[in-house]
Amino acid sequence: MHLMNSSDIPKKLNPDIIRSVIQKNLLLDPRRLYSFFNWSSTQIEMGNPQNYLECSAILVVKLCNFNFFGTANDLLFQMIRTNLSPSEIFHYIQCSYNEFDGSNSVVFELLIDMYKKMGRLKDAVKVIDDSKGYFVPSLLCYNSLMNDLIKANMLEGFWKVYERMMQEGICFDVYTYANVIRVFCREGNVEEAKKVLFKMEERGCKPNLVTYNVLIDGLCRVGALDEAFEMKKSMAVKCLVPDGYTYTTLIKAFCKERRTRDVKSIWLERAHELLDEMKKKRLTPTMEIYDVIIIGLCRCGDLSRANEFLEEVVAKGLKPSSKTYTALITGHSREGRVEDLKLVLEGMRKQGIELDRFLYNSIISDLCKAGKMIEARTFLVEMNEHRSAHLKPTAFTYGAFVHGHSKAGEIQDANGYLREMLDHGVVPDVYIYTALMSGFCKRAEIDKAFELYDEMCRKGVNPTIVTFNIFIDRLSKLGDVKRAREMFDSIPGKGLVPNIVTYTTMIDGYCKSGNVTEALNLFTEMSSRGIQVDKFVYNALLDGHCKEGDMEKALVLFQEMVQKGFATTLSFNTLIDGYCKFQKRDEVKCLLEEMENKGILPNHVTFTTVIDYFCKAGFMEEAKMIFLNMQEKTLMPNIVTYTSLIQGYNTKGNTSEALALFAEMKMKGIRPDEVTFGAIFDAHCKEGNLTEALKLRDELVATGTPLSNDMYATLIGALCEREEYSEALRLLEEMGKQGLKPTLDACKTIIGSCHGAGSVEEARQVFGRMVELGFIPNTTTLNDLVEGKQNDANIEDSNNLLKQLA
């Protein structure tokens, strides 16, 4: 080449001469021609790229014919860099290929391979497409290209190549089938993938370990874990032994499967079995396997076993990943297992993994949610002691303490953390302020909540609609509907729009305060603004109409609710309660039937409301039927239910039934309340069974349950009727010591009992002691005390008693 450079040959060169030299010397070593071509290309411009490609195509075909594939690859690389299309390059090579007898078709495969190496897979597919009718690539070429297309996730190109193979009638080998199965699995079409496996076996191509691993992985990806597990078991029939990849795929799938905790526990057990099987076959589990098992156990709440696996990992000299430690830390902190948490942190630090801000915040947040505020505090102190600004507490960190203390009702502590974060220069966000305001509102400290609201606004922190909803809700519940409305009207001024919760809360507030008219105005406004009305709004309005006693409007609204599918158990309960108050027995019964027909289940409130109404109205048979029906529906009566029935039977004079119910409720472990005991005292006294009444009184005293005024009055009255005045006086003394004072009606009953027995002296003693104990204010009430006896037949005796008492 040096001699040629020094001669006048370069001056005589042109594209035609270069092409002519190559064509006339084809019998020479093609490498010498290639060197000449390269040299010539540096001496002159080839002009039209077609001249360059024509010469290159001749040379690349000759190089392949002589098996100089390395040099051919270099030339193909240069040809592709001309930026001509794959079709043009293929055309020139194909023309040269046809020109020479016995040309080696490997040149086309080298072109496909070069496009692959250059990352131009689409162009490689294009060459496959253009080659139809000219040459058929080898199975190795097809498999290699398909494999690269899968790796690049170019599935459209994959199926083009697959179609070409089918058209050419190429006989697939195990690698081709594995690739097709892999793509079907990647597309989530495991049914087709299974058909391919069946087809390959049918055609005498035995699946290998890779084929099974690909299909098992595909089944795991779509959650068909049982099928994947069975596929693994079927490998033994084919004399195939699962490898580490098989076990890893299955174990990861079983551990990562997101199901309910109970089902997840079953999957984790299977993963554990696979791990044991793996160890028996002397396959070494990787850290990846231990990671997923530990993380799965943590998510399932089985922290003890997760700890055991961690110990096993460390003992084997493996290093758990930060994900593993994060899962363990999160699990222990959520459960409030502080000692276990400390051990995990210690082990983590020994492995050279330090806590970052995310983990600190996660630990603090979880401990606060678990109510471990003191333990969470130690991590906050640790964060503040760090020199790195990246580990300093943020608003999220302090927010966890504010939310935790607020939830526990420790509002002063929550407020303390707000002040602490301000002292550290951390700006609270709206969620922290809102949590605190909510805490103060729940404690009815509304003024303090407003002070915080003002502070928040001064600091430039804008409220959210949730902030307003909290204030409106609390003000409404406190009966300050006027102030709640002021808050409601101020919402647009903050650039916010009332939502369904805002409207519902305000409407409910108006209804509970008896202003249904204003509630209906808001209801109309809500609809006009396009806010979808829900069952909660309707229930609030229904309650308002019932409280006003407007049952006609309540019924119209209720029917509208039924039509729209908004009627719930609460809706029925509200209307039933309204009808009960107006003693509409037929309407109550109709509503109970309607609930049954519509499949809306009555609850304790439904049955107890109806039972209470029937008992007060004296419909004891119907009350008993409802009581039995309630239990048939597996709803156990509570203290209110039993007390209503006991009072009802007692009022009707059926004291034996009342006492039987009292015994039944005690047997069921339902503790009577003051009202129940009062009714039972009355029942015993009506039966004249003072022994049982006094026994019940002693039982109450022994358990530290105080007797009420009514209980004492009932007992004392009964004792006076039985002329047991010393015991009556003793109970009067006891009342005085307890700080109790009988009502004037009770005093009348007691004095009247003495009068009825004609026991003037005893009546004087009882009356005198009543005056001394301050039960009777002055003598002007004496007429009141005996006036109930003035209608007795012996009026003269009554007047005499009055004079004597005076």
TrEMBL record:
<feature type="repeat" description="PPR">
    <location>
        <begin position="743"/>
        <end position="777"/>
    </location>
</feature>
<dbReference type="InterPro" id="IPR002885">
    <property type="entry name" value="PPR_rpt"/>
</dbReference>
<feature type="repeat" description="PPR">
    <location>
        <begin position="638"/>
        <end position="672"/>
    </location>
</feature>
<feature type="repeat" description="PPR">
    <location>
        <begin position="321"/>
        <end position="355"/>
    </location>
</feature>
<feature type="repeat" description="PPR">
    <location>
        <begin position="499"/>
        <end position="533"/>
    </location>
</feature>
<dbReference type="InterPro" id="IPR050872">
    <property type="entry name" value="PPR_P_subfamily"/>
</dbReference>
<feature type="repeat" description="PPR">
    <location>
        <begin position="708"/>
        <end position="742"/>
    </location>
</feature>
<dbReference type="Pfam" id="PF01535">
    <property type="entry name" value="PPR"/>
</dbReference>
<feature type="repeat" description="PPR">
    <location>
        <begin position="173"/>
        <end position="207"/>
    </location>
</feature>
<dbReference type="Pfam" id="PF13812">
    <property type="entry name" value="PPR_3"/>
</dbReference>
<feature type="repeat" description="PPR">
    <location>
        <begin position="464"/>
        <end position="498"/>
    </location>
</feature>
<feature type="repeat" description="PPR">
    <location>
        <begin position="208"/>
        <end position="242"/>
    </location>
</feature>
<protein>
    <recommendedName>
        <fullName>Pentacotripeptide-repeat region of PRORP domain-containing protein</fullName>
    </recommendedName>
</protein>
<dbReference type="InterPro" id="IPR011990">
    <property type="entry name" value="TPR-like_helical_dom_sf"/>
</dbReference>
<feature type="repeat" description="PPR">
    <location>
        <begin position="429"/>
        <end position="463"/>
    </location>
</feature>
<dbReference type="Pfam" id="PF12854">
    <property type="entry name" value="PPR_1"/>
</dbReference>
<feature type="repeat" description="PPR">
    <location>
        <begin position="394"/>
        <end position="428"/>
    </location>
</feature>
<feature type="repeat" description="PPR">
    <location>
        <begin position="138"/>
        <end position="172"/>
    </location>
</feature>
<feature type="repeat" description="PPR">
    <location>
        <begin position="356"/>
        <end position="386"/>
    </location>
</feature>
<feature type="repeat" description="PPR">
    <location>
        <begin position="569"/>
        <end position="602"/>
    </location>
</feature>
<feature type="repeat" description="PPR">
    <location>
        <begin position="286"/>
        <end position="320"/>
    </location>
</feature>
<feature type="repeat" description="PPR">
    <location>
        <begin position="673"/>
        <end position="707"/>
    </location>
</feature>
<comment type="similarity">
    <text>Belongs to the PPR family. P subfamily.</text>
</comment>
<dbReference type="Pfam" id="PF13041">
    <property type="entry name" value="PPR_2"/>
</dbReference>
<feature type="repeat" description="PPR">
    <location>
        <begin position="534"/>
        <end position="568"/>
    </location>
</feature>
<keyword id="KW-0677">Repeat</keyword>
<feature type="repeat" description="PPR">
    <location>
        <begin position="603"/>
        <end position="637"/>
    </location>
</feature>
